[in-house]
UniProtKB/TrEMBL annotation, chain A:
Gene3D superfamilies: DsrEFH-like (3.40.1260.10). InterPro entries: DsrE2-like, DsrEFH-like, EF_Hand_1_Ca_BS. The lineage of its organism: Bacteria, Pseudomonadati, Pseudomonadota, Gammaproteobacteria, Chromatiales. It holds the Pfam family DrsE_2. This is Peroxiredoxin family protein. NCBIfam families: SulfCarrDsrE2.
From TrEMBL, chain B:
It comes from the Bacteria. InterPro entries: TusA-like, TusA-like_sf. PROSITE patterns: UPF0033. Belongs to the sulfur carrier protein TusA family. Residues 8-32 form the UPF0033 domain. Coiled coil: none annotated. This is SirA family protein. The lineage of its organism: Bacteria, Pseudomonadati, Pseudomonadota, Gammaproteobacteria, Chromatiales.
Length: 159, 76
């Protein structure tokens, strides 16, 4: 197969939304796609050496709540301190029990398969982020260089 | 089930890990060799079919046996 290309823009920095870019990129790479993930705004969290990704039930009515928690904790209850940490811990445990890979593992598989990870220079500056906190191999670029790759891609996703 | 050269147990793993592990194992094998993958993820049935079609590796056999899914993939 002649190399196909997949371009992904990752804009979200929560645990649940970290999955689609890494699942699709690692799978595409296994299928022979040349793949690039352009991380911008909160998507920059995906590039941290130690990503502290959490999941929040706030503003997310589609999130299935364990143990009937939605009944006991109506919307305001979900804003209580510690709730986000607890939901994150429960989600991670659930994922592990279902054989779902961790974000770190999927990211490692992406890097092994030579998926290119690009950080948006503008948002790195905007948030005063320390690039020492990012994993090795990250490239820094802007919208124009994204289009150089995305313009020739077969699939382009905004996540 | 036909003969195989290498076996990969992907039981308990969920999408996309069975495919990624299979790809990694195939990378280390030579052309014509056969990989036997065992998986429990029901989604892997369609995924291995699609994997074979897209990568050119041949899916020689795909079957369910005792609650597990078995795949024989010949490296192209």
């Amino acid at each position: 197969m002649e190399d196909k290309k997949l371009a992904i823009i990752a804009t979200k920095g929560s645990l649940d939304w970290a999955y689609p870019p890494f699942i699709l990129a690692s799978t595409a790479a296994a299928l022979g796609y040349e793949t690039q993930i352009f991380c911008t705004f909160y998507g920059l969290q995906l590039l941290k050496k130690e990503p502290k990704l959490e999941v929040t039930p706030l503003g997310n009515p589609g999130m299935p709540m364990p143990l009937g928690m939605d009944k006991w904790f109506p919307v305001l209850g979900l804003a209580l301190p510690g709730m986000q940490g607890m939901m994150t811990a429960m989600m991670k445990k659930k994922m592990q029990s279902k054989g779902v890979a961790s974000i770190e593992e999927l990211r490692e598989l992406c890097l092994e398969a030579e998926v290119k990870l690009v950080a948006c220079q503008m948002t790195v500056d905007l948030f005063d982020m320390d690039t020492d906190d990012f994993i090795d191999g990250v490239e820094y670029a802007g919208a124009t260089s994204f289009f150089e790759f995305a313009g020739e891609s077969d699939i382009c996703l905004y996540i | 089930m036909a003969d195989f050269d290498q076996e990969l147990d992907a039981s308990g793993l969920n999408c996309p890990l069975p495919i990624l592990r299979a790809k990694k194992t195939l990378n280390a094998m030579s052309a014509g060799q056969v990989l036997h993958v065992v998986a429990t993820d029901p989604g892997s049935v369609r995924d291995f079919d699609a994997f074979a079609k897209q990568t050119g590796n041949e899916l020689m056999e795909s079957k369910e046996d005792g609650g597990k899914f078995h795949f024989l993939i010949k490296k192209s």
